[in-house]
Specification:
Blueprint (H helix, E strand, L loop, with lengths): L1 H36 L5 H21 L3 H9 L3 H10 L5 H7 L2 H9 L3 H9 L3 H7 L5 H10 L2 H12 L5 H4 L6 E3 L4 H9 L10 E5 L5 E6 H6 L6 H4 L13 H11 L3 E5 L5 E6 H19 L12 H27 L2 H6 L2 H29 L5 H34 L2 H31 L8 H24 L2
Parallel strand pairs: 1-2
Antiparallel strand pairs: 2-3, 4-5
Amino acid sequence: MAKSARKKKRTQSVQEALEQVRALLQKHTIVENMVHKQDMPRHDLVESLVHKQNLAELQNKLDQLHPADVAYILEALPLEERLVIWDLVKAERDGEILLEVSDSVRETLIENMDAHELVAAAEQLDTDEIADLVPDLPQDVVDDVLHSMSVEEREQLRAAMSYAEDSVGALMDFDMVSVRDDVSLEVVLRYLRRMDELPDHTDQVFVVDRDDVIKGVLPINRLIVTDPEVLVGSVMNTGYITLTPDDKAQQAAQSFERYDLVSAPVVDQSNRLVGRVTVDVVVDFIRERNEAEQLSHAGLLEEEDIFASVWKSAKNRWLWLAVNLGTAFFASRVIGAFEGTIEKLVALATLMPIVAGIAGNSGNQTTTLIIRSLALGQVTPDNARRLIGKELAISLLNGVVWGGVAGIFAYLLYRSMPLSLVMTSAMLLNLVVGALVGMMVPLAMQKLGRDPAIGSSVLLTFTTDSMGFFIFLGLATVFLI
């Protein structure tokens, strides 16, 4: 309850900040227009002073906000106002804010920065954060950033960029604390006190040997309450979770959720410590993955800036619209093949959308459950066949129940028992088709190494529509005409 209240309060404060910024922008525009129209001595000087005063008020407001809140405001403003705000953000916060904004908005901001500004923004960030930013930067900027780094930092950046986007290596952080097991806790405490600050989300320090092979972890709370004279090796935790750079990020997210982790060490094949993953990065990954799945279900290729140009937004939606158009034409030809049947029994035209619609909804339920189970790692080759059997059984039961209900309504409307039986049979068969497609498409996508969510909804709708029309009209042709 307390967490929910804090989250709600946080959301309200960000929204309030956005409204205040919008009000200041509006005030800035109105005052500048009024001053510009005034005929007065030293007009240019007065106009310049008013301009600076208004912008100073805006900048003061922005300086009080967290980089994530500034990013939220930038995403919620049209391009012209967005660029006004971006110019007012202090240079030392550019890099943090670029990391927080969505990819589409980041493109518009980077397009309006020169090479010097981009290099300065990148230099504010840690190596793993620069790796997230590099794909959006011009090559000459990337070269300048690499040139400004130390040899160790360059190697870390190249390593981070070499891993797949959905791997642990892409989430890995190189900023961590490691100690030896043969020193006392007092030595560790003195070592930590010499640091300006601990890396974010440091809930434990990693215990390694001379070759950086991990031997255990030392939780900070145990370090604080234990006798300082005790050796690290005698109090370290040897039952810990490790990740490797090539592990799937989704697997790491599941480990963080299952074991309530704040951080986890990342080791190479020789069990040498190479980095760590922290909970904030995992949360961001989960959020971005969920957003990507929602976009995929809606047939969008990528996240879209709501204030992008009409042309750019339209192109983002074209692929699946084209697929939908093709599938719709196919479904229409299925209906066209039974024109003679429909002409003889007009009631079929009013009933066949019900057959397709119910099967589509049922299939979507199956698809959603399977995609979720795949994401959680619950579906394996061993149990996939059993799950398919279960979904078929569910579809048969639903077909009998709801197909029967639909058949009763058809009888009440048209007083035709044969039509009622055809309606029930078509509903039953199409629900089975929907269940099969709802299961098989996500499973096939995963087997091909693709996101199971991509295209599942479109292919399911296409199949349940086309097969629903074919089954219903085909049965009607055989038994009613």
